[in-house]
């Protein structure tokens, strides 16, 4: 198997794993406090990441990389999990997955800002159209949607895009799984004490579904998914493999409908497809 093919396979596996993040979070926040879920998943993944770094005797990152690792940690370890957990108390996972269609665009924008690239004007046309599709959908939902939930999802997409772009840049030097592992370790001194401080007083009220949701977002969404994702980006190229994110809303909608029995209307499907087309156009004209 050549390197390019391996990169696409790894990227695809990572994307599928990430597709289950929002449905799993939706199940977990039914019994867990969103803040506890955020710090607990980061703590569990950080301890596993630390064990991997020690087992493979990875050298410490340079001091110049610490600020970038903090950005990655704030974006994908703390920011996105916390904001989506809070949002999922106001909106369904199927509704929130529509916003994930903007994630490739958010990543591309921060990649442009960090890399100093100058995309063609058509890029921004597709960018604005994609954003208008999502805003229009949120307004169309009216009473069935939540402005608070929508704003939280927008914020989550912004910080996650920043974390993805910064992590992709670092992965060229540190390696794929090493980036997320070090980012998790950097956050551990804060996440571990918070986990112990705000843990539930009565564990008996936590249902099996919430435990399974916590296990999924801790092991797969927070660590294993990134191992495949960053490895795929490193092998197949960030721009090419990154386009696999465009498939994530479709997989997420299928999971929300099959596992959580949530209603996925035609309007939601059409908006998701429109957003994906806009993001694909923006990606095409990024250079």
Automatic annotation (TrEMBL):
Chief localisation class: membrane
Transmembrane segments: 7-29, 35-56, 68-88, 94-113, 122-140, 146-165, 177-198, 210-230, 237-260, 266-286
Membrane-topology descriptor: Multi-pass membrane protein
Protein name: EamA family transporter
Pfam families: EamA
InterPro entries, alphabetized: AA-Vitamin_Transporters, EamA_dom, EmrE-like
Positions of the EamA domain: 7-134, 148-279
Record GO cellular component, one term: membrane
Record localization: Membrane
Keyword Membrane on entry: yes
PANTHER family: EAMA DOMAIN-CONTAINING PROTEIN (PTHR32322:SF2), INNER MEMBRANE TRANSPORTER (PTHR32322)
Family note: Belongs to the EamA transporter family.
Record keywords: Membrane, Transmembrane, Transmembrane helix
Manganese found in the keyword field: no
């Amino acid at each position: 198997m050549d390197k390019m093919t391996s990169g696409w396979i790894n990227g695809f596996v990572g994307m599928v794993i990430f597709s289950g993040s929002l449905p799993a979070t939706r199940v977990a926040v039914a019994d867990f406090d969103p803040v506890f879920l955020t710090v607990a998943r980061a703590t569990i993944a950080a301890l596993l990441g630390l064990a991997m770094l020690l087992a493979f005797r990875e050298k410490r990152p340079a001091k110049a990389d610490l600020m970038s690792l903090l950005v990655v940690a704030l974006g994908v370890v703390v920011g996105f999990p916390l904001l989506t957990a809070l949002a999922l108390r106001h909106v369904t996972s199927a509704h929130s997955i529509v916003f994930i269609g903007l994630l490739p665009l958010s990543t591309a924008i921060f990649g442009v800002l960090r890399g100093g690239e100058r995309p063609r004007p058509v890029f921004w046309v597709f960018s604005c159209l994609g954003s208008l599709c999502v805003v229009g959908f949120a307004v169309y939902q009216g009473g069935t949607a939540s402005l608070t939930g929508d704003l939280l999802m927008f914020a989550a997409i912004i910080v996650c895009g920043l974390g993805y772009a910064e992590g992709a840049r670092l992965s060229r030097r540190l390696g794929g799984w090493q980036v997320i592992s070090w980012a998790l370790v950097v956050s551990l001194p804060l996440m571990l004490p918070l986990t112990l401080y705000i843990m539930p007083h009565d564990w008996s009220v936590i249902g099996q579904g919430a435990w399974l949701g916590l296990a999924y977002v801790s092991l797969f969404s927070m660590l294993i998914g990134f191992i495949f994702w960053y490895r795929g980006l490193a092998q197949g190229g960030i721009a090419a493999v990154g386009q696999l994110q465009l498939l994530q809303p479709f997989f997420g909608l299928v999971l929300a409908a099959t596992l959580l029995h949530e209603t996925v209307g035609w309007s939601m499907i059409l908006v998701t497809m429109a957003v994906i087309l806009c993001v694909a156009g923006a990606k095409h004209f990024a250079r």
